Amino acid sequence: TKAIQIAIDGPAAAGKSTIAKIVAEKLGYIYIDTGAMYRAITLKALNAGINLASNEEAGALLTATEIDLIPVEGGQKVLLDGEDVSEAIRSQYVTKAVSEMAAHELVRKRMVELQQKLAEDRGVVMDGRDIGTHVLPSAALKVFMSATVEERARRRFEENKKRDILTPLVELQEEIAMRDKMDSEREVAPLKQAHDAVFLDTTPLTITEAAEAILKLAEERL
Ligand code: C5P
């Protein structure tokens, strides 16, 4: 059988990465979490103390930065200038700042190039905000995954609890809603369902059910 590209987009905390990982594993494809790349450059910007709103400063930082995604058992490792930042990029500190950094045209251009190179000539499941619309416009399967903001906040809350992160539910819901707003309203490659994407509402679905729905759609395209 041939290998296809699967693009999974949607708002924050919709379960994209959890489900994308399962789908990739089942198909023997690589999984690429593009949000991790925007998080990594944001972490560097915060550490460097640059003005996140400045195009010039973001661009200058970018040229001196190396970001690598290394596929590992059950996911991927994120390297920022050779250092493993897989955990550090998940902090609230980075989460709250990432949408501002991701709005810069220069930042997106560089990330998209990297993402397209990673996906070249192989079976891939890639998740993000603009995969179906910009990064992999000819992907054989595009899914736009969503759930109510309440449900997404609740899931993130439960997930955090397992890692001893105790951000209150209301704060999570606010942060998620704010990020969705910024990601949808930005000028460059905003969060948007591709016209040829399949909409999947995961509100009533378990992780297994959502993964199975996507695997079924994938099989129809193999
Ligand atoms: O997927 P995740 O929640 O980790 O993404 C973090 C942020 O990175 C998003 O809120 C968005 O601002 C940005 N992002 C993006 N385009 C992508 C993936 C993520 O702008 N393809």
UniProtKB/TrEMBL annotation:
One of its GO terms (cellular component) is cytosol. One of its GO terms (biological process) is pyrimidine nucleotide metabolic process. Pfam families: Cytidylate_kin (PF02224). It comes from the Bacteria. Residues 6-219 form the Cytidylate kinase domain. InterPro entries: Cytidylate_kin, Cytidylate_kinase_dom, P-loop_NTPase. Its main location: cytoplasm. ATP binds at G10, P11, A12, A13, A14, G15, K16, S17, T18. It catalyses: dCMP + ATP = dCDP + ADP; CMP + ATP = CDP + ADP. Gene3D superfamilies: P-loop containing nucleotide triphosphate hydrolases (3.40.50.300). It is found in: Cytoplasm. The lineage of its organism: Bacteria, Bacillati, Bacillota, Bacilli, Bacillales. It comes from Planococcus rifietoensis. Belongs to the cytidylate kinase family. Type 1 subfamily. GO terms for molecular function: ATP binding; CMP kinase activity; dCMP kinase activity. This is Cytidylate kinase. Keywords: ATP-binding, Cytoplasm, Kinase, Nucleotide-binding, Transferase. The gene is cmk. Its EC number is 2.7.4.25.
